[in-house]
Amino acid sequence: MNYGRSNAQMNILDRPLPKVAWRSNDQGTVSLSAFAYLFSELVQYHQNKVTSISDLERRLEEAGYNVGLKAVELAAFRSKEYKRETRLMSILHFVSGTIWKSLFGRAADSLERSIDNDDEYMIVDYMPITSSYISVPSDLGQLSVDSYISGIICGVLQSAGFPARVTAHNVAMDENEMANAVASSNQLLVPRTEKAVFLCKFSREVLQRDAALER
Amino acid sequence: AKNRTNQLNHLKSETTMSSSPILFVIVGKNEPLYEAEFNKLYAADNALYQNYFVLHSAIDLVEKAAWTSTAMNLRVVDKVNHQSISAFVTAGGIKFLVLHSGKSEELLKNFFADVFELYVKLTMNPFYKYDSPIVSKAFDKRVRA
Fold first, then answer.
1. B94: closest CA among B111, B115, B110?
2. Cα distance from B88 to chain A (closest Cα, Å)?
3. B130 vs A76: CB contact, 8 Å cut-off?
4. B122-135 pLDDT, tens per residue?
């Protein structure tokens, strides 16, 4: 096909996409320590450039946003069924199940609907890999580096046609949740006292369209 | 790749028999990202611009159809004169539109699948901004192949 050219110059369009990324261990996975190192450098890089907490969170969100936009296409391609999601509940299940599995190797721990507002949904993760290895000093008390993941979620929802605001919150866990978290994970992560909750607030038009599709 | 060449050659040869060009456009949220014409008839320039117009006017119909079905391939969404427009919407909301003479549904399905694969590989490039015009020559070459 490309005689006379070295393999290093093979175009990205020629290389096969790894079809089954999260099941095989040899290809398509990156070591957790490599990711943690790279991510900590990313956070430090942005920390040197901004002066406030919200700016840092915003930059992490933007970084995650680009990942999210592309993760949708990849997940849909890998599923081989070539289906899109048009309903709100199905896109949320898609995010908390398929996207989570393809990025972190496991499904999100829980998907809940907020009681107070009907346009808010929460995805809960007991051990998000972004904040497992990052300690936040007390003068940046409100910071959540999981805003990278909330940026990913935001990108996924945006490109699928469900614009939403996604924010990350650290919520204290109670006893049986902690036991569940330790039991369900097979990695040796630092024991945590807080779970990460990603709050997704959908815009009005999404709810209206979903209600219209219901009929 | 050879299979696809054969398919598209077949598609092209069919349309040369009916002597109408095929127009393929990739549309993002706000603007066309990529355009390719096959079998362009050099004498009929006016008809060519009209083809673009017809294709773009079908985008509304595509969006409407996109929300009622969870499949990606929406097949034929519009028929104008003797030509029909088929659409394929990706999970990220990018639309592939083809204006063609109405035969060869099956080949179009394979064509869409192949272009989708190329598109996903393109998005894996971290330097490709999502929803921006596709200027990669390699992409262009492979679509036309």
1. B115
2. 10
3. no
4. 888 788 888 888 88
Q: Which residues of B touch A75 (CB under 8 A)?
A: 91
Q: Sheet of B83-89: strands edge to edge? A: B32-38, B22-27, B95-100, B83-89, B73-80
pLDDT digits (tens, 9 = 90+) for B2-19: 555 555 545 544 443 334
**Distance between CA atoms of residues B79 and B54, nearest Å:** 10
Tens of pLDDT, residue by residue over B37-70, are 776 655 555 666 777 788 778 888 888 888 877 7
Inter-helix orientation angle B59-66/B45-57, to 10°: 30
CB neighbours of A99 closer than 8 A, spacing ≥ 6?
A: A71, A72, A75, A152, A153, A156
pTM of the model: 0.79
Q: Which residues of A touch B120 (CB under 8 A)?
A: 17, 73-74, 77
Question: DSSP letter at B126?
Answer: T
Assign A129 to helix, strand or coil: helix
Chain B CB contacts of A12 under 8 Å are 121-122, 124-125, 138
pLDDT digits (tens, 9 = 90+) for A23-71: 344 446 778 888 888 888 888 888 888 878 888 888 888 889 988 888 8
